[in-house]
Amino acid sequence: MAEAPASPDFQALLRRWLKPVVFAAALLPLAWYAWRAANGALGANPIEATTRYFGDWALRFLLIALAVTPVRLVFGWTGVGRLRRMLGLFAFFYVALHVMSYVGLDLFFDLPLLLQEILKRRYITVGMFALVILIALAVTSTDAMVRRLGGKRWRRLHMFVYPAAIAGVIHYYMMVRAGFLEPLIYALILAGLFAVRILKRR
Ligand code: HEM
């Protein structure tokens, strides 16, 4: 049986509230962190817990942002496209918190030490590669930048979100000493999203 189209009222409501609701929801991980930090509930090693927590959410938001186009292609729900930039910027926001917690709380902003770490630890090198891409994408995410670069060039540049996400997953895989299941799950989700995009575009 064909699905009844959503009523215009419902569509208008969705158009109005979708973005603010998703925005508020995207801040929940930060609120949960703040609550735990304020109540001394970050565990025995709060600095490590902080870096890891924001690293997890950075990767999750990267995948959520990457899921927007496949959701649009599979379910034909075009409205979700309006969330892509916001979700991408939230991914960048959580990456920034992740890196700041490492550089600030762990290394006390010792930049020569950061350089040593980048050269010494391969997983940090790979993380930096992802970070550089995400900075370029965040800087060029504005409407003015889309106009300046031109749609085609802008889209080509923003396809680099895939190498950034792959590097994010590899970074995670390289840093875990045991329990490779989680990075594997992220890798499978990423591969699935990419496959949908390729297959549906044909
Ligand atoms: C797209 C960029 C990045 C993503 C998505 C990402 C994600 C992650 C994830 C998922 C973890 C593991 C969390 C866990 O064990 O539950 C992690 C750990 C870590 N990341 Fe990143 N990361 C990124 C970039 C970086 C960069 C640029 C640096 C350093 C400059 C960095 C430093 C670290 C460190 C030090 C850890 C280990 C934390 C610890 O065990 O104390 N990451 N990251």
Shape, per Cα inertia axes: globular
* Spans where pLDDT lies below 50 across 5 or more residues: none
Number of beta strands: 0
**Helix content range:** over 70%
| Helical run tally | 10
Question: How many domain regions?
Answer: 1
Question: Largest sheet at a glance?
Answer: none
User: Over all CA atoms, what is the radius of gyration?
Assistant: 19 Å
Structural class: mainly alpha
Q: What oligomeric state best describes the polypeptide chains here?
A: single chain
Your description of this structure?
The chain has 202 residues and is mainly alpha-helical. It has one domain. It has 10 helices and no strands. The longest helix is centred in the N-terminal third of the chain and has 30 residues, at 46-75. The two termini are 27 Å apart.
Secondary structure layout:
Elements: H1 8-26, H2 28-38, H3 46-75, H4 84-106, H5 111-120, H6 122-139, H7 143-149, H8 151-158, H9 161-175, H10 181-201
Helix pairs in contact: 3-4, 3-9, 3-10, 4-6, 5-6, 6-9, 7-8, 9-10
The structure holds protoporphyrin IX containing FE.
